[in-house]
Amino acid sequence: MLGLLRPLPAVCPYLLLLLLLPGGQGRILGYNNGFHYQDISNGNGNGEIYFNGVRLHVESPQPSVSATRGSSVTLPCHFHYEPELAAPRRTRVKWSWLPANTITAPVSPEAFARETEVMVAMGNRHRSYGSFRGRVRLRRSAPGDMSLVINELQLNDTGRYRCEVIDGLEDESVTVELELRGVVFPYYSQKGRYHFNFFGAHQACQDQDATLATFEQLFTAWEEGLDWCNAGWLADGTVQYPITVSRDGCGGEDLAPGLRNYGQRHRILHHYDAFCFSASVKGTVYFLKQSTKLSFTEAVQACASDGSQIAKVGQLYAAWRLMGLDRCDAGWLADGSVRYPITKPRANCGPLQPGVRSFGFPPLSLKFGVYCYR
Fold first, then answer.
1. Which long-range contacts (C-beta less than 8 Å, at least 24 apart) are formed by 20-24?
2. Which residues touch 311 (CB under 8 Å, ≥6 apart)?
3. pLDDT of 187-199, one tens digit each?
4. Most buried residue, 88, 139, 173, 203, by CB count within 10 Å?
5. Interval 202-249: pLDDT, tens
6. Dihedrals φ, ψ of 5, to 5°?
7. Which residues, at least 6 apart from 23, have a Cβ–Cβ distance to it below 8 Å?
8. Which candidate, 201, 196, 162, 194, places its Cα nearest to that of 178?
């Protein structure tokens, strides 16, 4: 048995995969992947494989990447061998995606089961999947470059991407976080405060060309000054709200500013508002110049007559935050609310801080302007 524990000779004509069968009898499989393994039998038919030889390394110089909606982005991933090989090898790469709303801790083996395949490639052959089909490719700018290029970025592309390189029994991976630059805004129902369960909040944001915000997005918005005393759903199923000025009714004057956290709530039974996240839009949001004010129905028709459609709340917020839209005119939006965007505060245009001013949901027969999207 002592002979079984002796490593293979350092100089060998071939690097072999050696599996020792029960009883001390062995056989050599007809497969050579350039790595050097030794399997030590433990007496019950199961062996532990020890590695000794060429090692595969997979790395990314950027753990996170940010981009804008509709643009293209490259998620870096490179692999190499130590020691370097004299000739290139045939490897397989697999890119997969874990949505941002499930990322609250380091990815566990259980979390990998929820990953969505983005792309697999071997040599010159590749295949992409689902909503990524036709939008992704490998950069391949140099040997070992398996960086993923994603075109036409969508709101739902945010999340953690895993680059996995496979060579025989060797399997190494690295993750890259993709963030979209955008804006977080609170959103409540036409019926008033706290009418959304989790799924209703998700749909409400989607209806306004947005998604439920992640904790990281809300935290960034708080750092940038977002202060809102109504609790809202986030993408991970928690309910929170951001406070920059401590006060009674919002956690109390003695509690430091920050995110107030109700924790995980029942996604069906509990009802709150929503925090939505909107990124840049391809088109243009504009205030339609009209000689007269319009009811909601007239506003919808006016945008259609101008070759556009009435703007959604998420589109107005994105135009305000990312495009600098500044207009001191209240106008209808697609959800029946009336709002206007201010980037340069001034007299008769609301508070001294920039923001999207809201009149709530007035009767649809009242007359206002309208914001259109083309």
1. 20/47, 21/45
2. 285, 303, 319, 333, 334, 371, 372, 373
3. 999 999 999 999 9
4. 173
5. 999 999 999 999 998 999 999 999 999 999 999 999 999 999 999 999
6. -90, 0
7. none
8. 162
**Tokens coding 315:** 């589109």
Q: What is the pTM of this model?
A: 0.70
75-122 pLDDT, tens per residue? Answer: 999 999 988 887 777 899 999 998 765 433 334 444 444 789 999 999
d(CA 182, CA 186): 14
Q: Whole-angstrom Cα distance, residue 17 to residue 28?
A: 7
As a whole number of angstroms, the distance between CA 175 and CA 167 comes to 18
- The single-letter code of the amino acid at 148 is L
Question: In whole angstroms, what separates CA 55 from the centre of its chain?
Answer: 32
- The CA dihedral of 219, 225, 231, 233, to the nearest 10 degrees, is -40
Q: What angle do CA 242, 237, 282 make, to 5 degrees?
A: 75
Nearest residue to 353 (alpha-carbon basis) of 253, 231, 222, 226: 226
Tokens matching residue 58: 């997979």
Q: Which two tokens stand for residue 78?
A: 């490179």
Single-letter amino acid, residue 328: C
Is-cis flag, bond preceding 83, omega within 30?
A: yes
- Closest Cα to residue 143, out of 90, 78, 85, 92? 78
CB atoms inside a 10 Å sphere around CB 104:
12
Residues 246-271: pLDDT tens digits? Answer: 999 999 999 999 999 999 999 999 99
For residue 324, which amino acid is it? G
Which two tokens mark 282?
Answer: 């391809």
